[in-house]
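Q: Hand in one record:
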Amino acid sequence: MVAYSQDHKVAGKVAHLKGIFVKSGRPAPATRSRAIQRLTARQVETAAVGQAHPDGGGLYLRVSPAGNRKWELRYTSPSTGKRVDMGLGSANKGHVGLAAARELAAVAREMVARGLD
């Protein structure tokens, strides 16, 4: 069944996305969009233990229950189609900093875009 706009003038013509109804007769669910909240150097130092903290673009700061910090890039493998977490190094003080982790993630994303895994 074709989706029709709530205020359509001509049968069969699909108008703009606002107010589109689906088969069930209810409005289509709104897409979720969130602003990317980038990590700050202070947040990296004080991140809560036992959690993953997103920086955007698939880059995460993961803090183990023991307090060790590491950078991970989450992406979908071009060869298998499965989600992969690639380690980018330790985020503990004196190791890979926030800016360096972002650069490493950008290089890794370029490789994935070229089909390298």
